[in-house]
C-alpha cells in the first residue's frame, strides 16, 4: 500500500483564510458567534445565532464561464482549493490536468437559492428565476464537480454529501484512492453555505442554542449548561499526494495520513450510538496499525448537543480511557456541517505542527453524564504529539475517524 501525505492546505472560515489569522483568533479565546437580525424574518425559528463568514467576494480573476455554474458553496470550495494548491506549489502546474489528480469533496447539500427558484415554480407556476444553471448549483455534488472543472481535472470524482461527515469522509476516500494506487494526487475537503433552511433542520429538533442575547457564551461542547449547536459556514481543502510523488517534486509535507475508519450506526437517523462511534476509531487505529496509546490528542466532533456529546465522550473513553486530551474546535466557529471535517483536519494538523492545542471555549463544568476525559480548558495545551485523531459523526449514523502522523 502506498503512503499518503498532505502537501497543501487552505480554507475560508469565519476566522479568515490563512493559518496566521486563524491562530490569532484561536489564541484570543473568542468565538465568531453572532446574532443575525435578518433571521427575525423566520418567526418560528428559535435560534438567531450563527457563525457567518465576515465577507466573501468572488475573486476577480475567476472566469465568468466557470463561475456561472457555482452557488456560494461551490465558490467557497473553489477558493479553498485554490489556496491549498498554492500552498502545495501546484497553483500554476498545468500537468495536474493530465488525470493524475482527482477530487473528493462534500457538502450537506447544494446552494439554497436555486431550490427556492424551483419551489416558486411549483407554488406559482412561474419559471422566471429558474435558469440553465439552477440545477448544477443545487445538486449534491456541485462542489466536487465545480472544483474539478475549474482546474480541468480528469481524475476520479468522489462526491460525499453526508451531512456533518462530508469533509472527513472526502479526505478518507481520497486517502484510500491514493493508497491503492488509483490516483497520485487528490483535492479533498468540504464546504457549506449558511442559510435559514440549514439552521431550521436542527432548530426543529430543538438542537440549536437559544442564547440569542449571549452569543459569546455559546456553543458549549460537553458543558453541563450547553443548550445546542450554532451553525457556521466555510470550506477547507487538503492536497493529498502519494509520498514518492511528493518527494520527486520536492514538495513540503505537512503531515501523513495513516488511518481512516468509517462505519454506520445502523440504528437511528439522528440519535448517535457510542459503541459504533468507538468502532470507527478502532477501525482507524487498525488501519494505521497503531495501539490506542500512540494517539496523543483527539479533535472531537463536539457539537454541543445533548446526546451527541454524551455518546462521543463515552466512545472516546471506551477507546482511549480517561487520559485522552480532547477539545472541540466548534466552540470557535460553530458547526460548519459539511465543511467541519475538512476545517478541523486542517486546524488539527496545524496545531500538531506547533505542539499546542486550542481549548474548548465555554466549557466551565463538564456534564456529569459525559465520560471522564482530559478535557482541554482554560488555555492552549502543549503536547508533543506524533499521532493525532480527528473524529466526525453525522446524521444517519455515519461515523468517521482520521489519524494524522507528524512529519518532522
From TrEMBL:
One of its GO terms (molecular function) is 3-oxoacyl-[acyl-carrier-protein] synthase activity. It holds the Pfam family Ketoacyl-synt_C. The keyword Transferase applies. It comes from the Bacteria. Coiled coil: none annotated. Keywords: Acyltransferase, Transferase. Gene3D superfamilies: 3.40.47.10. InterPro entries: Beta-ketoacyl_synthase, Ketoacyl_synth_AS, Ketoacyl_synth_C, Ketoacyl_synth_N, PKS_Beta-ketoAc_synthase_dom, Thiolase-like. The keyword Acyltransferase applies. Its EC number is 2.3.1.179. SUPFAM superfamilies: Thiolase-like. This is Beta-ketoacyl-ACP synthase. It comes from Paraburkholderia sejongensis. The lineage of its organism: Bacteria, Pseudomonadati, Pseudomonadota, Betaproteobacteria, Burkholderiales.
Amino acid at each position: 500500500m502506498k503512503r499518503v501525505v498532505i502537501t497543501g492546505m487552505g480554507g475560508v472560515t469565519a476566522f479568515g483564510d490563512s493559518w496566521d489569522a486563524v491562530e490569532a483568533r484561536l489564541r484570543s479565546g473568542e468565538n465568531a458567534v453572532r446574532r443575525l437580525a435578518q433571521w427575525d424574518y423566520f418567526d418560528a425559528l428559535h435560534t438567531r445565532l450563527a457563525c457567518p463568514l465576515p465577507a466573501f467576494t468572488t475573486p476577480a480573476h475567476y472566469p465568468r464561464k466557470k463561475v456561472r455554474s457555482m452557488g456560494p458553496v461551490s465558490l467557497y470550495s473553489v477558493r479553498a482549493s485554490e489556496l491549498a494548491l498554492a500552498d502545495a506549489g501546484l497553483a500554476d502546474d498545468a500537468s495536474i490536468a493530465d488525470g493524475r489528480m482527482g477530487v473528493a469533496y462534500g457538502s450537506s447539500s447544494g446552494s439554497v437559492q436555486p431550490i427556492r427558484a424551483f419551489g416558486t415554480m411549483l407554488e406559482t407556476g412561474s419559471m422566471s428565476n429558474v435558469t440553465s444553471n439552477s440545477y448544477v448549483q443545487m445538486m449534491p455534488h456541485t462542489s466536487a464537480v465545480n472544483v474539478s472543472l475549474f482546474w480541468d481535472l480528469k481524475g476520479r470524482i468522489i462526491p460525499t454529501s453526508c451531512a456533518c461527515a462530508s469533509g472527513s469522509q472526502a479526505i478518507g476516500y481520497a486517502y484510500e484512492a491514493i493508497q491503492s494506487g488509483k490516483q497520485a494526487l487528490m483535492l479533498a475537503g468540504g464546504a457549506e453555505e449558511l442559510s435559514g433552511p440549514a439552521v431550521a433542520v436542527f432548530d426543529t429538533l430543538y438542537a440549536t442554542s437559544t442564547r440569542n442575547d449571549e452569543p459569546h457564551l455559546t456553543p458549549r461542547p460537553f458543558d453541563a449548561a450547553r443548550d445546542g449547536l450554532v451553525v457556521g459556514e466555510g470550506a477547507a481543502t487538503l492536497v493529498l499526494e502519494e509520498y514518492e510523488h511528493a518527494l520527486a517534486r520536492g514538495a513540503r509535507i505537512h503531515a501523513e495520513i495513516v488511518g481512516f475508519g468509517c462505519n454506520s450506526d445502523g440504528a437511528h437517523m439522528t440519535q448517535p450510538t457510542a459503541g459504533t462511534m468507538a468502532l470507527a476509531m478502532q477501525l482507524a487505529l487498525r488501519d494505521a496499525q497503531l495501539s490506542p496509546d500512540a494517539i496523543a490528542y483527539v479533535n472531537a466532533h463536539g457539537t454541543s448537543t445533548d446526546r451527541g456529546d454524551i455518546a462521543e465522550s463515552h466512545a472516546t473513553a471506551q477507546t482511549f480511557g480517561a487520559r485522552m486530551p480532547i477539545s472541540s474546535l466548534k466552540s470557535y466557529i460553530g458547526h460548519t456541517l459539511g465543511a467541519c471535517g475538512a476545517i478541523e483536519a486542517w486546524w488539527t494538523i496545524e496545531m500538531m505542527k506547533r505542539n499546542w492545542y486550542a481549548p474548548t471555549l465555554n466549557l466551565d463544568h463538564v456534564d456529569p453524564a459525559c465520560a471522564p476525559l482530559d478535557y482541554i480548558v482554560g488555555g492552549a495545551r502543549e503536547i508533543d504529539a506524533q499521532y493525532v485523531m480527528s473524529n466526525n459523526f453525522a446524521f444517519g449514523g455515519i461515523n468517521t475517524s482520521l489519524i494524522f502522523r507528524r512529519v518532522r
